[in-house]
Amino acid sequence: MEVRTFEGGFDGKGLRIAIVVGRFNDLLTGEMLEGALDCFRRHNVDAVDVVKVPGSFEIPLVAKKLAESGKYNAVLALGAVVRGETKHFDLVANEVAKGVANVSLQTGVPVIFGVITVEDELQGLNRAGVKSNKGFEYAMAALEMANLMRELKN
């Protein structure tokens, strides 16, 4: 029996990646963006395009446009949704998650869900840069998936 295993690596050489980042809660998303860019620099990604949108809810539409363009090996969606006193938090978080997943499935381009959902800004700061930077972690997932898709094409 022949067993073959496919796994994406973390070398960014030859990769072009788009980042869609929501400006709402930019204290958090700005830190995540810097973490993602740091990751891509350290892993020698050839080109990164950053597209800023008003908030997390707008991410799926722009991610779809970028994925459909054929220019990118992966799209990284960065946003932050902070719980408030209304149901708005649940609505936004659910719709963004579904939208990002649908874009990836519809286009065949990896779209990484890098939208943090937090109870308050302190929790968000811990996830966006104080204790760890989720932007860096999500960027690593984008690298791995872009390389895996390249490997599966071959």
Automatic annotation (TrEMBL):
Q: Keyword Transferase, does the record have it? A: yes
Record: active site: H88
The alphabetized UniProt keywords are:
Riboflavin biosynthesis, Transferase
According to UniProt, the reaction catalysed is: (2S)-2-hydroxy-3-oxobutyl phosphate + 5-amino-6-(D-ribitylamino)uracil = 6,7-dimethyl-8-(1-D-ribityl)lumazine + phosphate + 2 H2O + H(+)
A molecular-function term among this protein's GO annotations: 6,7-dimethyl-8-ribityllumazine synthase activity
Q: Which residues bind 5-amino-6-(D-ribitylamino)uracil?
A: F24, S56, F57, E58, A80, V81, V82, F113
- List the pathway annotation: Cofactor biosynthesis; riboflavin biosynthesis; riboflavin from 2-hydroxy-3-oxobutyl phosphate and 5-amino-6-(D-ribitylamino)uracil: step 1/2
Give the domain of life. Answer: Archaea
Pfam families, sorted: DMRL_synthase (PF00885)
Residues binding (2S)-2-hydroxy-3-oxobutyl phosphate, per UniProt? E85, T86, R127
Cell wall biogenesis/degradation recorded as keyword: no
Q: Which InterPro entries match?
A: LS, LS/RS, LS/RS_sf
EC number annotated for this UniProt entry = 2.5.1.78
Which GO BP terms sit in this record? riboflavin biosynthetic process
What is one term from the GO cellular component aspect held by the record? riboflavin synthase complex
Q: Which leading EC class covers this enzyme?
A: transferase
Family, per the entry? Belongs to the DMRL synthase family.
Q: Which HAMAP family match?
A: Lumazine_synth
Quote the function comment for this protein. Catalyzes the formation of 6,7-dimethyl-8-ribityllumazine by condensation of 5-amino-6-(D-ribitylamino)uracil with 3,4-dihydroxy-2-butanone 4-phosphate. This is the penultimate step in the biosynthesis of riboflavin.
The protein's name in its UniProt record = 6,7-dimethyl-8-ribityllumazine synthase
Per the UniProt entry, what species is this protein from, by scientific name? Thermococcus gorgonarius
Q: Which gene encodes it?
A: ribH
